[in-house]
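Changelog note: in this version the structure field was regenerated for every chain. One regenerated record is shown below for reference.
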Amino acid sequence: MSTSLIYRNRTLYEVLMRGLYGRYYTARYRAVAAAIPAGASVLDLCCGPATLYTRYLRQQSIDYTGLDLNDGFITELTKAGGRGLVWDMNSDAALPAADYVLMQASLYHFLPDPSAVVDRMLTAARDQVIIAEPIRNLATSDNRVLAAIGQRFTNAGTGAQAHRFTEDSLDEFFARYAERVVRSEVIAGGREKLYVLSA
């Protein structure tokens, strides 16, 4: 399955994300970065262009590994000083171990039941799992044209995703991990919700 143009080009990806998040674009990264202490090891799943690393974590001496389907993103990450691996999250391969295993705005790719992915994250994490997921989405807009655009241009190579989380459905999903949830909060001006789970 081919990726959308957005997912093949770092600049277009960043422009789209800035457009979607507006003045909250940097807030979504800052919220995740604040949960990771300096010197920790981090595994970032579906890392995209690794903006979290290049702009927020690199100066904290983080041992960073990013996984993504897009080999172009991984090449750029390696050039920037991080470790990158081309990785299909739909495979059953065990994830590399790290202190913190995280995923931003990608859990919806594994609907209708992303529990297998979260379970693999918990197995790989030594300290915590961090997941930040959109709860307000262009792809689920009542405007059919906007919804079609959102679905088409957020194809990361796994096919168009018509379904997204709402805050209620995300909370319902994480209820099965209630004993592990140490923190949950709405971030990025109400566009995402952050969950932190103990490993």
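Spot check on this record: The CA atoms of residues 111 and 147 lie 17 Å apart. The helical segments are 5-8, 10-21, 25-33, 51-57, 71-79, 115-124, 144-152, 167-174.
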